[in-house]
Amino acid sequence: MDVYEALYTTRMMRRLRPDPIPLDTQARILDAAVRAPNGGNTQRWHFVAVDDPELKRKFAQLFRQARAIEYDKFQAGQGPMAVPAPGADPAAHAETMRRIKGSGNYLADHFEEVPLLLFVYSIDDLGGANIYPAIWSILLAARAEGVGGVMTMVLRNFEDEVNELLGVPVEQGWKMSAMLTLGYPLGRWGVAANRRPVHEVSSRNQWDAPLGIEVPRPLWPPQDQAEGLAAVG
């Protein structure tokens, strides 16, 4: 798969089929993850793959409780997704949140059927500088394998319970960075169409100074590039 196809079409997939992910596919995904750049090549990461049905049932209960906590915050106007980003359209933001809630409801209702949960741990990660490249590599490699997924942090609401269920040696400093749900998606891949264009969210040399280019539409697939990129100024 072309790298740009992976970059443009990898999106959060919450509606997943229950079909198991073969171990050799999991191996390729995780092997890509450990090739990610990380400071000093210290590799302060650990990945816990969970496919045991009983464990998944326990995590499903925690996930639904944790998600309810987050939506209570959202309804109260709290949390990073409660309000749109500066300059964004409030109506578009509300519609995006409505759609995310709908697909999130599906994931919560079918959590036990998710074929693979991947818990990602790190130590002293300086805000995620080392672990998030690895997580993105997981999602890109999964896309190349036809596997979709979503990264979520809601289980941090029950971090102690998760650590106990997984037997995490927290005394060594391990912290849960995120959990990924992975599986073959029910939906279709496609380029995200609801992104603000590059020239609205970028500047050159100083904040809010003109970038010097306009990108009115996605530059992938390649046939769109000639008319999709316009130089200005």
TrEMBL record:
Key word Ion transport present: no
Pfam families associated with the record: Nitroreductase
GO molecular function: oxidoreductase activity
Keywords, ordered alphabetically: Flavoprotein, FMN, Oxidoreductase
InterPro entries: Nitroreductase, Nitroreductase-like, Nitroreductase/BluB
Ranges where the Nitroreductase domain occurs: 10-184
Highest taxon, organism lineage: Bacteria
Name of the molecule in the record: Nitroreductase
Organism: Mycobacterium palustre
